Amino acid sequence: MVLESMLKCTRCGENYKQDRSLQLCQKCKGILYVNYDYDSIRKKLTPQDLQKRGLGIWKYSEILPITSRSNIVSLGEGGTFLHRCERLGKKLGLTNLFIKNETTNPTGSFIDRGTAVAVSKAKEFGVRALVCGVTGNLGASLAAYAAKAAMRCLVYLSGPIDQGKLYQMIAFGATIRPTKTSEEALAKAQSIGSNTMTVTPADPLFLEGEKTTGFEICEQLEWKAPDRIIVPMGNGGHLSMIWKGLKEFVSLGILEDLSTTMIGVQAAGCAPIVQAFQKGSMEVSPSDKINTIVRDICFKNPLMGDLAVKTLQESEGTALAVTDEQMLDAAHLLAKTEGIFAELAASSTIACAKRLVELGKIDPSDVVVCVITGMGLKDPIAMQRFVKRAKNLKGLIHPSAERTFSTKIGETKQLILEILSQSEQYGYFIWRELTQKFDIKIKIPTVYQHLADLEKLVLIRHTRIATIFGKPERKYYTITDRGKAMLNALKQMNASM
Ligand SMILES: [Zn+2]
Predict the structure, then answer these.
(1) Residue range 55-72, pLDDT digits in tens
(2) Are residues 445 and 482 in the same domain?
(3) Distance in Å, CA 28 to ligand 1 centroid
(4) DSSP string covering 20-33, please?
């Protein structure tokens, strides 16, 4: 365990002591990296020592920023399999293809590596509550680790969000506050007071955990780095951190040399890092639109975009954008040949490997590692697409599941949520809106039935009863936070169908 690790700005080189509120460089807003005393660790740590230790990220604790093991909050993150993939390799034309299967992490994604480190450090700082302001896997993972650490977890969320991840957050007991935009979510998360710690994808402690994917790949290849590592790029953090990990192994003498090229993938519908790299620019310009269903790798303004470009250049790697259809095909192929069901963002690495072999940019004998970052069951939109492709199997779906696949059956309830998201309203008003504005042929008692159903699901709640002389009583309803999140999810699902 290191006594003291420092934070160093990746842009201007400024050094800082570790602090729970320090997310970015105070001088230039650059990303901070944790730096260690590599010379003294080098004298104490050998591959033989590491080999004797059990699986998981904490076997590398000398090179993680936690001071005392007693503060470790663990759900069993890391230590994931590196599969040799002969069947898939044959399909892609690769003889040495490996999959780093991150779907088996505690909440189903590589993010758990980062969260485990951030939450352990939060415990060391004496923090009581954790806050984040992002969509997707980070919220789900943070909620789980907060539960384990007996800390409160507050998630600011802007929709749309994959339902599986939202369910995880609710199940782990997080408090969820919907916001209009992801920028607003991040701003709200950062304005929280004492005794709390904000975790963002750019948090130096969170990032440190992500580099352990690189450590494990080398250890599993018998202390050699592969020729190529292909990583999905959302914010660009995982790719950059795997590279940091490999370079640290060189600094510690664990790796003799490093000739790995790093390859980053994004969705063609939102690929600002790929565009910057292909233009030869060191700076990533934000994308103006998102045109993909693969939300976990689409960030208009990726937080670690510049670092990702730097990593690609430093390692003489490359970047590629792949379409949603290519990712769907890749997810299917991976599942069919290797028994690994990945989310579409993760399957992008297989689509990328296939394309680069076709282009002659990867040699058939190269040792190629595709990082499969998250599991497929979290992503209902992808599952829906799979089911749609297999038309003859539709009858096998449980009626309740089919209902969630159908826009028609849920349409009235969704419209009621929509009306209540504008303002607090009563039954007759909602009926009038539905019949006149949306042309839904429906009787008033049916509206009340829908309202009762929505209330049971805690998507709406009644607020007050108003009595106006000469008119029937008006019972008013309002949408709940959960209802707002559900409405966002429904809108996204309908948009993608
Ligand atoms: Zn700086």
Answers:
(1) 999 999 999 999 999 999
(2) yes
(3) 4
(4) TT--B-TTT-PBEE
